């Protein structure tokens, strides 16, 4: 593997639950993120998938230092950014930038596009001399496929896809090495999503970016990611190469998640195996003992209530070669293929004009 | 035929001029059939449904033409009083956002029971019993204990089940579901979609499923109508449409789905963006984004015409493209 650019270990974020106004006391905590470890190599894309409330956005916010971890370390090129403050922190933050989900609320409606993309330079004046900023902004707009002459327009004059391009231009302004993208395409129309995914891939090649790409759309995550981590209730339950996760899932939650995704192929309707989970995700304020997935798991046994399964290559696959040998936090991990094998292309083959 | 929409036109008065939201939409749904209406935001799919249900806000909305035949009666000619009797009892709607569609200050039991007290003149006590039965029917655990709970006390998936229960309470002949699972997580989405499909089979309802998700359509629909800029651009049995689309917009949508064999390559992307409804392009509304566009597309609106090809029996397939043959045969 290439040099790690980001190393996350034991990352925890607990929000206290309090009772009383005058005499506040803590009565519990919401364990939004409850021990997450991963490594991001330079130039690679790590996809994080999971359902709402699994903690994926909280992880993203901690990576960008928008949220302070309760415990754990986030090392950027070996340096723990959670311990930094002042100038040293500011210098590191330049290198990790975020692209947000909702291009309708993440751009200030009273600022022109030029001002929005230029704002990072005001916070980090050393990145570009004042005289050069206008040109840099126009360059950035061009890079993301917008007309540089539109610098004086306001966000509402752009469509959703164009606004997301503005958000990406702002994220690129300081030439960061890592971009954390939290659901960057899920607010966009289907016909526009592909454009933004293509843009992000092109920029990655052009600027050698590393991505943490968070989404709930599993097919887009597979397309863009080198490795994938599946989160459930504040923890990573399975992680591996995209082939390992999608074609050889060994954790029951991953299997259920993959099998539940509607496949855009009516022919797959009949011979598809679907695992329908019962019930809802438990509250992160009241996480089950042992394995946190056991309350919805069809394989759960007594051992699962007692022992927390560790995220490691399961023993039975330790000597296996190939993508099946990847980390899975299940006592009874076994391989089960749930996605229909991909049909040979049959691309409809329209040539773009 | 259960429902036939004929040449429906809907406009909205906006600050920027008249928005032509629905420009001559026709579709039909049979008993026991699932028609998926697929489109992006602004395609007119929800506005059409609101006009059919009679819940369009007028003003700013305005139905400027067309007919909505429900079991032979033109709903657009009914008086509001008669319309109200049809709505809820004979046709019902399931909304995307259950938290805003349910009344937050009434218990779910009261809201479900209301269907029976208002439409069937039942006593409150009987209505309550029916409410519990319904909650059981949509598999809400411990229904008898939870009938007195308020909507916010349920999870998103459970609330959506309550919406389904409410829609099915009086066993309507037609249900319109507007993005019923979009707000839900994938694993819950599967539960809710399965439940809806099961109940539909059991009651032999006609179902109009409005969605933007090609995956959901492939899973449950019998037929599909694809909408773009207020028009139906293609309609076909679902298998045929996925196999061989006859409109470049449909083809573009299918091609832009990421697939395994194209990993690491650029995704096919439809150029440009959906048009503004106050300035729908002349001719074919899709022409500025279409790889097949020629001069005729910039001037002449293509009619929805019968397509000969797979699934063409009984006039089941139609495409609003001047060059559908080219598109169909690649």
Automatic annotation (TrEMBL), chain A:
What PROSITE patterns has UniProt attached to this entry? Answer: ABC_TRANSPORTER_1 (PS00211), ABC_TRANSPORTER_2 (PS50893)
The family database entries (Gene3D superfamilies) matched by this protein are listed as:
P-loop containing nucleotide triphosphate hydrolases
Record-linked InterPro entries? AAA+_ATPase, ABC_transp_ATP-bind, ABC_transporter-like_ATP-bd, ABC_transporter-like_CS, Oligopep_ABC_C, P-loop_NTPase
A GO molecular-function descriptor: ATP binding
Q: Please give one Pfam family short name.
A: ABC_tran
SMART domains tied to this protein: AAA
Q: NCBIfam families recorded for this chain?
A: oligo_HPY, PRK11308.1
Tell me what this protein is called. Answer: Dipeptide ABC transporter ATP-binding protein
Automatic annotation (TrEMBL), chain B:
ABC transporter domain location is 3-254
Q: From which source organism is this entry?
A: Streptomyces tropicalis
Which InterPro entries does the record associate with it?
AAA+_ATPase (IPR003593), ABC_Ni/Peptide_Import (IPR050388), ABC_transporter-like_ATP-bd (IPR003439), ABC_transporter-like_CS (IPR017871), Oligopep_ABC_C (IPR013563), P-loop_NTPase (IPR027417)
Task: Show the SUPFAM superfamilies listed in the entry.
Answer: P-loop containing nucleoside triphosphate hydrolases (SSF52540)
Organism phylogeny:
Bacteria, Bacillati, Actinomycetota, Actinomycetes, Kitasatosporales
Which NCBIfam families has this protein been placed in? Answer: oligo_HPY (TIGR01727)
Q: Which family does it belong to?
A: Belongs to the ABC transporter superfamily.
Entry-linked PROSITE patterns: ABC_TRANSPORTER_1, ABC_TRANSPORTER_2
Name of the featured protein: ABC transporter ATP-binding protein
Q: Which Gene3D superfamilies match?
A: P-loop containing nucleotide triphosphate hydrolases
